[in-house]
Design a protein that fits this description.
The chain is mainly β and about 70 residues long. The chain has one domain (about 1-74): SH3 type barrels. Helix content is about 0%, strand content about 40%. It contains no helices and 5 strands. A 5-stranded antiparallel β-sheet has the order 3-2-1-4-5, with no helix packed on it. The two termini are about 20 Å apart. The model is unreliable at about 1-5 (pLDDT under 50).
Length: about 70
């Protein structure tokens, strides 16, 4: 388990429920929401809530159910 603020190394799915999660990159804030527009490797763009992680534009996050659940090491 990583310390608070450290990047998660988990990349194979949701560490909480073992369901599939998607690696995405934060590309722009989506004010006034508490989220951001993110893009996956296949070009899919989605609005992702960032309430559970400390992530900024350029960071990679693991997304499950429209919510970033971890920041991943790039």
């Amino acid at each position: 388990m990583s310390e608070a603020g450290e990047a998660c190394e988990h990349r194979d799915g949701c560490a909480t429920c073992a369901d599939e999660a998607v690696a995405m990159r934060v590309v722009e804030p989506a004010a006034p929401l508490q989220g951001a527009r993110c893009v996956a490797a296949d070009g899919t763009i989605a609005l992702v809530l960032l309430d559970l992680v400390d992530a900024a534009v350029g960071d990679d996050v693991l997304v499950h159910g429209g919510v970033a659940i971890a920041r991943t090491a790039s």
